[in-house]
């Protein structure tokens, strides 16, 4: 049978398309985890020649030194971390403006993976408006965080009138607020989100869940009950202006040997409660070193999510962060 050139091209193109489609489907079923790009939405850096966060004075030895971009690049080598969002390091209030200007400079430079920043702030201060509005035109300042699970932070701080007004202001400026709070106080975060519907929130560190709380037996102290945490995270997830950051949990892993399985109850509940479009990845480096290396954290997380569709893995590790923080 004679096949004309036009027919040959037609059949060949169809065969190529079929093969490509099959390859795509196969790749989607069994993705190579090493090929998925990562945007780290929780990158800490501190140069002790420029800043010395007060909390470092009592910090574990592994954290009591400078961590700068070259160290971050070494920690993430080979993991396809293509961009990072700097996360404030609770500098002294007098250094907050200096910290913000420093990370803006990093974000502008092509020598750094840092592409934006969540800066420190004190929303309960009447001076917060003057402080944050000076950065309203910077494309690199994405949001604000104040850690409110420190010992001297009173319960209900985030629900005080001035605090709420400041968080509402962030929404007007197009900035987000990170909820970093005790796992037993997540209901306060929900109430704050309800009062600030035009502000976007990020729940840090899976609501500060403790992996040890999900073990059948442990001799170590735990800070919350698993059922209470599940209920509160599910309640937070019902607020459409709240997303969840899958981060931080390895810093609380048991001092004994552990595997990725211990992280699964936390990660899976967060992914299921918030859905594939409202979760982002955070490395929490170098704080993650309290539990393991950056590489082990990434590899352990990928082990937990390996059975989920490739599209959902990509959203968690890269796509959602790119959209949420406007990094494209």
Structure overview:
This protein is α/β, with parallel strands linked by helices and 328 residues long. It has one domain (39-324): Alpha-Beta Barrel (TIM Barrel). The protein is 39% helix and 12% strand. The chain has 11 helices and 8 strands. The chain has helices at 5-29, 69-75, 96-108, 128-133, 161-172, 186-195, 205-208, 226-237, 264-274, 294-305, 310-324, and strands spanning 38-43, 81-87, 114-120, 141-145, 176-179, 200-203, 242-246, 279-281. It has an 8-stranded parallel β-sheet with strand order 1-2-3-4-5-6-7-8. Helix 6 links the parallel strand 5 (176-179) and strand 6. Helix 6 (186-195) packs parallel to helix 8 and helix 8 packs parallel to helix 9. Mean pLDDT is 90; it is low at 1-27.
Structural class: alpha/beta
Order of helices and strands: HEHEHEHEHEHEHHEHEHH
Note the overall shape: globular
Mean of the pLDDT scores? 90
Report the end-to-end length measured between terminal Cα atoms.
Answer: 53 Å
- What fraction of the residues are assigned to beta strands by DSSP? 5-15%
* Helix segment tally: 11
Could you state the CATH homologous superfamily?
Answer: Metal-dependent hydrolases
Low-confidence stretches: 1-27
Radius of gyration: 22 Å
Query: In the CATH scheme, what's the topology name?
Result: TIM Barrel
How many domains, as an integer?
1
- For the record, the CATH class is Alpha Beta
Helix percent reads 25-40%
Largest pleated sheet: 8 strands, parallel
**Which architecture would the CATH scheme give at its second level?**
Alpha-Beta Barrel
């Amino acid at each position: 049978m004679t096949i004309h050139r036009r027919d040959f091209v037609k059949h060949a193109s169809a065969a190529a398309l079929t093969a490509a489609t099959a390859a795509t489907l196969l790749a989607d079923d069994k993705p190579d985890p090493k090929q998925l790009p990562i945007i780290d939405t929780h990158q800490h850096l501190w140069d002790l020649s420029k800043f010395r966060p007060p909390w470092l004075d009592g910090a574990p030895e592994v954290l009591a030194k400078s961590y700068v971009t070259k160290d971050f690049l070494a920690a993430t080598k080979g993991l396809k971390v293509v961009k990072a969002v700097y996360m404030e390091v609770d500098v002294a209030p007098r250094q907050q403006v200096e910290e913000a200007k420093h990370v803006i400079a990093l974000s502008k430079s092509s020598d750094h993976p840092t592409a934006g920043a969540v800066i420190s702030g004190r929303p309960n201060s009447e001076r917060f408006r003057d402080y944050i509005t000076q950065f309203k035109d910077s494309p690199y300042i994405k949001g604000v965080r104040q850690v409110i699970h420190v010992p001297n932070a009173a319960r209900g701080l985030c629900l005080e009138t001035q605090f709420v007004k400041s968080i509402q202001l962030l929404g007007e400026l197009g900035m987000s607020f990170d909820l970093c709070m005790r796992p037993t106080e997540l209901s306060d975060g929900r109430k704050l989100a309800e009062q600030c519907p035009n502000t976007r929130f990020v729940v840090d560190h899976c609501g500060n869940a403790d992996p040890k709380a999900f073990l059948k037996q442990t001799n170590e102290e735990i800070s919350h009950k698993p059922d209470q945490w599940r209920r509160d995270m599910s309640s937070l997830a019902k607020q459409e202006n709240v997303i969840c950051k899958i981060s931080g949990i390895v810093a609380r892993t048991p001092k004994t040997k552990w595997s990725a399985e211990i992280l699964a109850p936390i990660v899976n509940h967060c992914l299921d409660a918030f859905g594939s479009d409202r979760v982002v990845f955070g490395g929490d480096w170098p704080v993650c070193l309290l539990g393991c290396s950056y590489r082990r954290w990434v590899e352990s997380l990928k082990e937990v999510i390996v059975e989920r569709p490739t599209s959902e893995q990509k959203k968690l590790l890269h796509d959602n962060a790119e959209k949420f923080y406007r990094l494209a």
